[in-house]
Amino acid sequence: MCVLILGGSADANQLASAIVGDPRFDAILSYAGRTENPKQPPIAWRVGGFGGIDGLIDYLRREKIARVVDATHPFAAQMSAHAIAACAALSIPLLALERAPWQRSAGDRWIEVDDFVSAAQALGAVPRRVFLGIGRTQLAPFASHKQHFYLVRLVDQPHAPLPLAAEMIIARGPFDLAGDRKMLTDYRIDIVVARDAGGDSASAKIEAARELGLPVVMVRRPFIPARQRVETVAEVLRWLCHGETPAERGV
Ligand code: NAP
Question: Which of 5, 72, 117 to probe ligand 1 with, by most ligand atoms within 8 A of CB?
Fold first, then answer.
């Protein structure tokens, strides 16, 4: 069975590792190409957009894809919407592997907002020292809020200037609590901006902010149309093997 795994999350790579060598599946992992040296999966992989919904439909037909697993980053809403539309057009079963959002714990001081423009506004008029733990693509809304000091952490050294004045750390996750606590302390950060990615690999900054008593402006996940979704690799494997999710089995 030819399976397309839409990647971008650590879960996508875990699924690739779980499926490799299984003679029942011929799987390929697709990356958007957002990082220069993506983690090389143990299965076949490709990089780059498909060319919208029509391009994805062509690809699914050409490669005779029988199942699609959407394991993109929770903020990659366009890719997820395209997958829903293309799979519906071809009647190809689609399952999303999506980690649960982070849960507020005692001591968390979250300011929840719907998007990055609102996140920038939530920083307020008074100058703050801000850690932007949101990747590279959503920095522009902060550029007009010049009163703040910004610390940005990116996977790759950018080839073009950032849209805002910021200090930069180049580092690839997963990050740990001790390291993120030290970073926030060393840079005298007094507020963190994060997107609700869920999972473990980016959660250290949230735990560190909690320990240090810092507020976190938390950007909620974007809207994605309804689709079948599970949270674990094991559930994806069951779906691939038996064609149903635990919810469908009434579990
Ligand atoms: P997006 O807005 O959902 O996708 C934009 C376009 O990128 C898609 O329409 C598709 O192009 C292409 N694309 C996205 N994921 C792909 C995949 N797995 N394989 C092939 N093509 C893919 O997603 P985004 O622009 O990548 O990112 C949106 C947000 O998610 C950003 O905030 C970003 O930082 C965050 N994020 C993304 C990734 C990632 O790996 N994509 C990882 C971490 C965080 P076509 O229309 O041409 O097919």
Answer: 72
Asked whether 83 lines ligand 1 (CB < 6 A), one says no
Structure tokens that stand for 239 in this block: 């779906």
Sole residue written with tokens 């950007």: 219
Ligand 1 pocket residue status of 203, Cβ below 6 Å:
no
117 shares its domain with 79: no
Q: How many domains does the chain have?
A: 2
pLDDT at 250: 61
pLDDT-flagged residues of the chain (< 50) = none
Whether residues 135 and 56 fall in one domain = no
pLDDT of residue 106: 95
Q: Is 137 in the pocket of ligand 1 (CB under 6 A)?
A: yes
pTM score over 0.85? yes
From its phi and psi, is residue 92 left (phi > 0), alpha (psi between -120 and 50) or beta?
beta
**What residues make up the domain containing 18?**
2-99+223-242
pLDDT at 173: 87
